[in-house]
Predict the 3D structure of the following.
Amino acid sequence: MISYHPDSRYLTDFATANLPLAEAVCVSAHLEFCGKCRAHVQQLTDVGGHMFARLQPEAVSEDSFAALMARVSAGAQEQAPVVTVQTPREELDETTQSHVFLPRAVRRLVSGSLDKLRWVQLGKALRVAPLQVSDESRDTAIYDIRAGGRMPEHEHRGEEITVLLQGSFSDADGSYSRGDFVVRHAGESHQPTATMDKDCICLVCLERPVRPRGLLYRLLEPLVNYRLQRLNRSVA
Amino acid sequence: MTSSDDSTAGSLRKALAGAGPLGAPDPWEAAIRKVAQHQDRAEFKKLFDHYAPMIKAFLSKGISSYADRSLAEEMTQEVMLKVWNKADSFNPAKASVNTWIFTIARNTRIDFIRRNGRADRTIDIEDIWHEADSPEPVVELQQRRVETMIRNAMATLPEEQALVLEKAFMESKSHNEIAEELALPLGTVKSRIRLALSKLQILIDR
């Protein structure tokens, strides 16, 4: 049961394709779990279609159609069959032996398999794999919190979106399960704990890196950021 | 409350508004079908003559003034090429022709902006803005196809609400960009858009 959804700003900016890419990836992932939000996006797109049909037309140049048909004819001859890379919709999580459903955008970003990602272990309970989304305002990553594991308490410097792909976690404000779209704002702090039954795998998009509160983590942060950046660079 | 559907604009409106279970059949659906099944160029020419000028109008609004306007012409051709190539994927149960072509124009526009910004492409626009083939069925909301509702309600929107919708949907601006342009708090823009949507019976909880 999905309890946390993107608000009207996210859904509208998504439907009009005006959402920064990393955030759009998160909304897109949520939509695959949530039929209600998908229906809203359809409605919003219908609004776009309606307004589009009422625009004052702007004449196109006279040879435009002929030029287009020339391209069609040329394309029909040389066009190679479109090869679509079929990555499995689900994959086996090796530690838990359970299947993880990956939304299409995530499937594409992880190039098919979670195991092939470059994971950085952060303490016992958490490992993080950065993803390459060309969006300079946000960092995107997959978080894997071990079953029962507790993340260090941390405060957000910027907005953070989390979409749960598998398992569940809870913090002082509530508990979250598969498909939930959870937004934390700057200044909020929390300490998520994964439930005991399985690892919690999340898609996370951060406005800026979070700042862990504990001294140890504060000391580690530059190192963590450094390692993430290096990884990003070597992936790019 | 189907006000003035018998006006002189009625036939034009029928052609423009698209179908829906509640509306008149969409005359453009058959054209798309003929293009898909028989690569019917005569039907495609009709689609082109009708839609290309609207696509160009939409793209011109979304391109900032400093950009070259000939871009809109080039991108219009790109959109119509996709209409030709993807005609067999058009599903009238999911969207009207207007909505379908709007989504192609929308995606072409954002794809173009991205390509200009950066060469590396780790993800395609179509991986994000796609018809989700999800195991979760779409929830049947009271009005899934809202065209009739939109048609009737759009005209009654207060000007300030119509304006924010226009900026979001046609000028391709985010909530943040609208807030900046109109010098309004983000919360005000959000509530205006949400209020306008609720009048179109699009009831989003938050």
User: Anything to note?
Assistant: Residues 1-22 of chain B have pLDDT under 50 and may be disordered. Chain B touches chain A through 86 residues (CB under 8 Å). The longest helix of chain B spans residues 41-62.
